[in-house]
Write a structure and sequence with these properties.
75 residues; mainly alpha
Length: 75
Amino acid sequence: MEAYEFYATPENGTIKIPEQFRSKITSGVKVILLSPMPIGSNSAGTNGSRKSDMLLSPTLNTHGWRFSREEANAR
């Protein structure tokens, strides 16, 4: 599999392959889209959540819990 990198602006959902690559692409292609617009921005197709919100670790309220170092490290 060969990789050809170029920048394009979609027009009505279509991305044009630059002329210099057209003769090299003779069959189906695998498309990976990388957008400079961050996830969660107010673009169409997003639900408004931010990328950082999706990556946050879960938290647990341990207020009032008592345990020793041995208990915390017990296997």
